[in-house]
UniProtKB/TrEMBL annotation:
Alanine racemase N-terminal domain boundaries: 16-224
Listed name of the protein: Unannotated protein
Pfam families in the cross-refs: Ala_racemase_N
The keyword Aminoacyl-tRNA synthetase belongs to this UniProt entry's keyword annotation: no
Keywords: Pyridoxal phosphate
Keyword DNA-binding: no
GO molecular function term, any single one: pyridoxal phosphate binding
Amino acid sequence: MSTRKAEISGALQEVLQRIQRACDLARRSVEEITLIAVTKTFPASDVEILYELGLRNFGENRDQEASLKAPLLPDDAIWHFQGQIQSNKLKSIATWSDVIHSIDQLSHAEKLNSLTSKKDIFIQVGLDQSENRGGVAPENLANLANLVDSINSLSNLNILGLMAVAPLGQEPELAFKRLNEISKKLLTTHPEMAAISAGMSNDFEAAIAHGATHIRIGSQILGVR
């Protein structure tokens, strides 16, 4: 085993053990969790190592970088776009991504709908509007529900659920609890939106405790660039 493969394998096993412990504490099954390895800024060779180690879900937030990596992996690799969307990049993003986590505008959804035959998406909720991270303001649930209804009318998009990033400088527990509460309210009228994309390298245990189904982990697996 190469030094890099051994390094990644060891880090991955540690993360998987932490996911298992977090699930045990939350009385959840580890099968409920989709681990997305965030591979932005890392070479395709690292993604290939992760694939060899059994991972199939990979996350990127730069179209220019991901569009070069994605074709190098086998067809059963699942690619997640989680960066802020620029309208002029959507056509390219639609060609390589399987799941888009950062839809927060109807105009982007409508354009994506015209570019694809079928695409899974998450609607991004902006838990801190003072940060330029995108996302629908969560204060008005009716607005969020209206956006969901409008996107549901687009035949080529399938909403999996909500996505959010914990605000900087705040307890992630509080952020993920709030996201889970918003998700539960939406579920009363939109039962198909059961997934929650939340939690990254430094806070994924808190996200699992509050219902996350998709966690996005980069540095804890691949290191810091």
